């Protein structure tokens, strides 16, 4: 008689069903809250969200009000961050720009997910040869320098904030497509799915109950991770003048406008860049927190 | 053991601590034994008894930062090894003391040919030229039984099976003719037939080079085959030490008896088994560490203090409150 | 090895074809009309028509593309729709500048990132590790051009250690080129260095726990030998991939850095081509960029094969 093997059975490869998710939400929240960095990041992002939503009401001055008598003033009691080349209060411009910056990032993510996920799903379900070919094409796109790709797309669409964000979204499509395809493939070819198909379960059902829950985890992490890059990309394009067009401005655009005055009104360049950096730091911290809290299978591709 | 030859390796009161989430915990305690020149000593015990840790401590391969020597010494030919500088250790390893491990599949660098990995040792310790080292590497491969050595010397590890890789590792270990080979369960991960071949190889090498071997194993079959002496460990302590015949025929410690009974079936009967599991370092039983699983346990065994080692004139030592004759009496009473 | 190169080259041609086809197709999507833009705001209908004919924009799309393709095979990448300058000429002038900047940033990233990653791995969880990881985290969050701006402010303007504008070509005066390229290199290379450091740290920590490193130590090899020859060669594998990926990112980011430091590379070209909807320039840039990426990936694959013979 052999001693009993008391090792726990390894269930880490068993795919999730939708029902099990409700239990996991609690655990996820608890784990997330135990990461100080992620919590701090989340708090900062909440602040940014508030600014984005209520910006125009919070700004001390009218961001579009030219005041040519007060051009390029250093920070003072009246203008905490100084004034720009048209006499506009920088702080107000910055606050109002928050909404534009956040919107831009969200649009690009929406484009990336909206096109990438269905694409990946299709690539996973279609015959492997076709799917493989599709993936190679997306790999090729992924290898291309993102900024240049965005500029290339803008070459067709012309400059403008929405156009820029669509361009950036296009850059994200391959990443989301790959992720979706990999996650779906993990589940789709499992025997129990085949069994399900054989007995005639409609594809819709299979997708919703088995496939979808399996991708949400990694997808959420990937979205959080890509958020930071979306901000940097938008800021970069706007910095070049290809994104937000005057008089609208995003943080990146404000940074771009500060460039000619680096000699004289150097303070104009500090705040926008700082805000971008802090927000990207915050999104990365939150992304790390989400990745760690979701546990196995959803670890962020480091 | 004649008085004129001092032991090659002396392990004295070795206590190793590992870092756990609660701080430093001892996983071996007061481990003492010695290995004479040319002798094969087997370190035996269940998983988790501390035998691998003890083996790693000898060439100073305990992972820094997560393990430390809390007490005791390891002495090679009178030299206290843990007084050595880093360079001193680097000179000893591979040259005086070599070690082979349990996992041949992952113990070779995947990007260098096996010949180069053997030659590396030779060039480091013997200062051989590239060409000379290469030639010697081929000889060594041949010696350890790798067929077609002259060609295989250029091959990469992934082109070898597990058994062959272990042979290569033995070649590396013995390249500079060390005086002591520490082998941590070298055959556990291999097929049974290959196991026998490797053991034969080790014995051949021992005969050829006059090698002393400290072999860690949980397999009594291996012990019966190669050991001169046996050191039995349980829960981090040495519980018996004896020449192999004495150990196999008249084990003194109840644990040793149970081990042997579990390996060798009673005539016409089943294999015996030992109930329970070894204690965790944080939850050591009071008094004798083995008493919860011992068939002879008396209330006295549960009481502190801990059981000291007793020695017999034959040179055997064991850690029990009762002598073998007393145990027989206890068994008779039941 | 030769087979690898051969296979790559074979794939490159259809790749270039595909990519330029895509760009050319985009011209069909372009909402604006370049002829209108070039002819000017006050142009009459006839003038616009004339401009269109002059530019060949009245011909069907596929004709224009095939023409361009024929020219490209000969090395002539067409002319700018806007200025009629030869695209090949423009690229010849500007691409080397951008490449030089990108490569120097890559070298910077390796020179700074590799030792940092190793140090962080060796002093894991101690203050050196925390510091390096902290700096790296900020490094990848910060926009490179903001760093460039800050560096410009502090080192060029305030301290006067480096030139603020003005670019000296490498061929003209290497010392002056170097002097001028330092700040842009740091600004461009810093995020890449941060990523390299993070990746190498992870890779190194993982490698140091491998059995074969233990074997190397058990052989009695010197510490530096174990580290450099056994551990690093193995840990370097993923880092080669990172460097290759970074190359692509750097190429894009260089475009923005060039604006900050007024460097006459393809950045300006690219931006203007968007504003002017100058499709031939965009096509030209896409072609050369794709070539650079292909070569980079090829080099990375060769490095991988050298580092780990199993893949050969």
Descriptive report:
The complex is a heterotrimer of chains A (302), B (334) and C (312). Chain A has helices at residues 18-33, 36-58, 90-125, 128-143, 146-157, 161-188, 191-198, 203-239, 251-258, 270-294. Chain A has 302 residues and is an all-alpha fold. Chain A has one domain: MetI-like (MetI-like fold). In chain A, helix 8 runs antiparallel to helix 10. The model of chain A is unreliable at 1-15 and 296-302 (pLDDT under 50). With 334 residues, chain B is α/β, with parallel strands linked by helices. Chain B has helices at residues 51-57, 86-92, 114-126, 130-143, 149-152, 162-174, 192-209, 220-226, 244-249, 254-263, 299-302, 324-333; strands at 9-20, 23-26, 31-35, 40-44, 67-76, 79-80, 97-100, 180-184, 212-217, 229-234, 237-243, 310-311, 317-318. In chain B, the strands form two sheets. An eight-stranded mixed beta sheet of chain B has the order 7-8-9-4-10-11-13-12, sandwiched between helices. In chain B, strands 1, 2, 3, 5 and 6 form a five-stranded antiparallel beta sheet that branches. By secondary structure, chain C is mostly helical. Chain C has a domain at 94-265 and 298-307: MetI-like (MetI-like fold), CATH 1.10.3720.10. Chain C contains twelve helices and no strands. In chain C, helix 5 (87-122) packs antiparallel against helix 10. The radius of gyration of chain C is 24 Å and the shape is globular. In chain C, 42% of the residues are buried. Chains in contact: A-B, A-C, B-C. Chains A and C meet through helix 5, helix 8, helix 9 and helix 10 of A and helix 1, helix 6, helix 7, helix 8 and helix 10 of C.
């Amino acid at each position: 008689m052999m001693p009993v093997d008391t090792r726990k059975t390894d269930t880490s490869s068993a795919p999730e069903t939708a029902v099990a998710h409700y239990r996991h939400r609690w655990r996820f929240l608890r784990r997330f809250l135990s990461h100080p960095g992620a919590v701090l990041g989340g708090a900062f992002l909440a602040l940014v969200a508030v600014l984005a939503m209520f910006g125009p009401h919070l700004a001390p001055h009218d961001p579009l009000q030219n005041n040519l008598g007060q051009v390029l003033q250093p920070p003072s009691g009246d203008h905490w961050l100084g004034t720009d080349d048209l006499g506009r209060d920088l702080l107000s411009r910055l606050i109002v720009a928050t909404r534009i910056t956040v919107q831009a990032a969200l649009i690009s993510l929406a484009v990336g997910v909206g096109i990438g996920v269905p694409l990946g799903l299709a690539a996973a379900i279609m015959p492997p040869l076709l799917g493989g070919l599709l993936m190679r094409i997306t790999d090729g796109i992924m290898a291309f320098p993102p900024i240049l790709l965005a500029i290339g797309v803008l070459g067709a669409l012309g400059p403008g904030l929405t156009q820029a964000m669509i361009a950036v979204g296009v850059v994200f499509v391959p990443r989301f497509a790959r992720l979706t395809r990999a996650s779906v493939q993990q589940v789709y070819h499992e025997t129990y799915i085949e069994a399900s198909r054989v007995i005639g379960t409609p594809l819709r059902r299979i997708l919703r109950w088995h496939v979808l829950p399996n991708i949400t985890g990694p997808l959420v992490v990937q979205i959080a991770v890509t958020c930071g890059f979306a901000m940097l990309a938008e800021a970069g394009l706007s910095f070049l003048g290809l994104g937000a067009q005057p008089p609208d401005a995003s943080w990146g655009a404000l940074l771009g406008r500060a460039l000619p005055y680096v000699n004289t009104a150097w303070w104009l360049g500090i705040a926008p860049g700082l805000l971008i950096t802090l927000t990207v730091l915050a999104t990365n911290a939150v992304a790390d927190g989400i990745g760690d809290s979701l546990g196995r299978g959803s670890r962020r591709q480091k | 053991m004649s008085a004129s030859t001092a032991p090659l390796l002396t392990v004295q009161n070795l206590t190793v601590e590992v870092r756990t989430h609660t701080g430093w915990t001892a996983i071996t305690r007061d481990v003492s034994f010695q290995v004479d020149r040319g002798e094969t000593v087997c370190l035996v015990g269940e998983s988790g008894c501390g035998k691998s840790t003890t083996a790693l401590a000898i060439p100073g391969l305990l992972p820094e930062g997560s393990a430390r020597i809390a007490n005791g010494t390891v002495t090679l030919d009178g030299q206290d090894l843990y007084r050595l500088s880093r360079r001193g250790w680097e000179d000893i390893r591979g040259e005086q003391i070599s070690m082979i491990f349990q996992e041949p599949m992952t113990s070779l660098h995947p990007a260098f040919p096996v010949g180069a990995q053997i030659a590396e040792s030779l060039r480091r310790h013997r200062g051989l030229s590239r060409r000379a080292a290469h030639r010697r590497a081929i000889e060594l491969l041949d010696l350890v039984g790798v067929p077609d050595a002259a060609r295989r010397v250029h091959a990469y590890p992934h082109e070898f099976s597990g058994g062959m890789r272990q042979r290569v590792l033995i070649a590396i270990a013995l390249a500079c003719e060390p005086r002591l080979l520490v082998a941590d369960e070298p055959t556990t991960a291999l097929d049974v037939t290959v196991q026998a071949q490797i053991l034969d190889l080790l014995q051949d090498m021992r005969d050829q080079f006059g090698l002393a071997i400290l072999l860690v194993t949980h397999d009594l079959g291996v012990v019966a085959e190669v050991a001169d002496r046996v050191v039995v460990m349980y829960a981090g302590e040495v519980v018996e030490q004896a020449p192999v015949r004495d150990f196999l025929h008249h084990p003194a410690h109840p644990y040793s008896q149970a081990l042997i009974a579990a390996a060798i079936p009673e005539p016409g009967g089943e294999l015996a088994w030992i109930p329970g599991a070894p204690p965790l370092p944080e939850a050591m039983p009071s008094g004798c560490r083995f008493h919860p699983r011992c068939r002879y346990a008396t209330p006295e065994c549960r009481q502190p203090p801990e059981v000291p080692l007793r020695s017999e004139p034959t040179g055997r030592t064991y850690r029990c409150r009762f002598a073998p004759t007393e145990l027989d009496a206890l068994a008779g009473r039941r | 090895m030769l087979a690898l190169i051969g296979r790559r080259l074979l794939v490159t041609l259809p790749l270039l074809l595909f990519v330029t086809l895509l760009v050319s197709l985009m011209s069909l999507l372009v909402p604006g009309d370049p002829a209108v833009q070039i002819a000017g705001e006050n142009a009459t209908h006839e003038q616009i028509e004339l401009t269109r004919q002059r530019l060949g924009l009245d011909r069907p799309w596929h004709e224009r593309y095939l023409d361009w393709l024929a020219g490209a095979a000969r090395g002539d990448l067409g002319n700018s729709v806007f200025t009629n300058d030869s695209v090949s000429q423009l690229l010849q002038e500007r691409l080397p500048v951008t490449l030089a900047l990108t490569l120097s940033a890559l070298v910077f990233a390796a020179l700074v990132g590799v030792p940092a990653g190793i140090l962080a791995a060796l002093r894991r969880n101690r203050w050196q590790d925390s510091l390096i990881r902290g700096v790296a985290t900020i490094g990848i969050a910060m926009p490179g051009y903001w760093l460039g701006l800050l560096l410009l402010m502090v080192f060029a303007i305030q301290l006067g250690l480096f030139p603020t504008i003005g670019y000296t070509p490498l061929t003209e005066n290497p010392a002056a080129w170097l002097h001028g390229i330092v700040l842009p290199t740091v600004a461009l290379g810093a995020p890449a260095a941060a990523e390299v450091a993070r990746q190498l740290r992870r890779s190194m920590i993982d490698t140091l726990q491998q059995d074969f490193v233990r074997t190397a130590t058990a052989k009695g090899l010197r510490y530096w030998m174990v580290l450099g020859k056994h551990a690093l060669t193995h840990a370097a594998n993923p880092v080669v991939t990172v460097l290759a990926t970074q190359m692509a990112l750097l190429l894009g980011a260089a475009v923005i850095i060039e604006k900050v430091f007024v460097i006459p590379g393809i950045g300006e070209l690219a931006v203007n081509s968007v504003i002017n909807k100058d499709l031939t320039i965009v096509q030209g840039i896409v072609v050369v960029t794709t070539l650079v990426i292909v070569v980079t990936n090829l080099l990375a694959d060769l490095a991988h094969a050298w580092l780990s013979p199993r893949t050969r």
